[in-house]
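Progress note, sequence design subtask.
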């Protein structure tokens, strides 16, 4: 049984984001990827306008977020990135709920097909638990070890 708070999910193109939503997602990404991880990098990388933005909120507070891309934008496959949850809600299953919802969102948008991610290496077991497999392409990005991982719908079972 998940302890994750029930969330209202929205999947929005960049142009449909409100200024508040854009502020909140950039604030959450910065709080985790820049401040918490002590990693100075260009988070606003020019890819946001090409992404669908998955926002999980409760009572107006953004608690979970991911970017979803069509095939050919980040990788040859459909991809998910900037996967992040509010630090105050870690350990509740929220990250697992976010990955399940992101996989569902990309399947609804672009059909059942492989999904590629660039995962921080320390999170390999987390993503493997959702059916992602190491593609044997390790790399270092912004001083952090990463792995390319791929999720295959036929090998990973049902989404959800």
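Output:
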């Amino acid at each position: 049984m998940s302890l994750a708070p029930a969330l209202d999910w929205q999947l929005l193109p960049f142009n449909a984001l409100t200024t508040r939503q854009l502020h909140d997602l950039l604030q959450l990404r910065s709080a985790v990827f820049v401040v918490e991880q002590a990693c100075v990098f260009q988070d606003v990388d020019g890819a946001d306008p090409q992404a669908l933005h998955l926002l999980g909120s409760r009572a107006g507070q953004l608690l979970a977020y991911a970017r979803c891309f069509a095939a050919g934008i980040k990788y040859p496959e459909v991809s998910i990135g900037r996967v992040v949850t509010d630090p105050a809600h870690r350990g509740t299953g929220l990250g697992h709920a976010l990955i399940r919802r992101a996989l569902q969102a990309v399947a609804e948008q672009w059909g059942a097909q492989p999904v590629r991610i660039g995962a921080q290496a320390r999170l390999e077991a987390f993503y493997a638990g959702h059916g992602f497999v190491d593609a044997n392409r390790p790399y270092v990005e912004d001083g952090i070890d990463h792995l390319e991982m791929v999720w295959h719908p036929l090998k990973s079972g049902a989404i959800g």
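The chain has a mean pLDDT of 92. Work on this subtask will continue into the next period as scheduled.
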